[in-house]
Amino acid sequence: MSTLKLRKWESAEHLKTEADMADYLDACFQEAGHDAAFIAKALGHIARARGMSQLARDTGLDRESLDQALSGEGNPSFATILKVISALGIQLHTQDQPHRS
């Protein structure tokens, strides 16, 4: 009987194109609900796919701080999230949500 080898899923390995990254982040926003850490971690996956060192240079933040902020365990400020989004070339758009009764 052969042994099945498994390895941890790494989302960043599957984010090859700008469209992949945009679709992934959109799906994460839909899934996250009110979980800000979920979105920070999703941005971390996109950052790793693009290159964390370059993102650190583009945001002016040190890489260790950036890794922590986008790990899902950190608590990044909104200013940090905005810097990351801008450096990644991502645009956020708003849309009215139907009111719930």
From TrEMBL:
<dbReference type="InterPro" id="IPR001387">
    <property type="entry name" value="Cro/C1-type_HTH"/>
</dbReference>
<protein>
    <submittedName>
        <fullName>Addiction module antidote protein</fullName>
    </submittedName>
</protein>
<dbReference type="Pfam" id="PF21716">
    <property type="entry name" value="dnstrm_HI1420"/>
</dbReference>
<feature type="domain" description="HTH cro/C1-type">
    <location>
        <begin position="52"/>
        <end position="95"/>
    </location>
</feature>
<dbReference type="InterPro" id="IPR014057">
    <property type="entry name" value="HI1420"/>
</dbReference>
<dbReference type="GO" id="GO:0003677">
    <property type="term" value="F:DNA binding"/>
</dbReference>
<dbReference type="InterPro" id="IPR010982">
    <property type="entry name" value="Lambda_DNA-bd_dom_sf"/>
</dbReference>
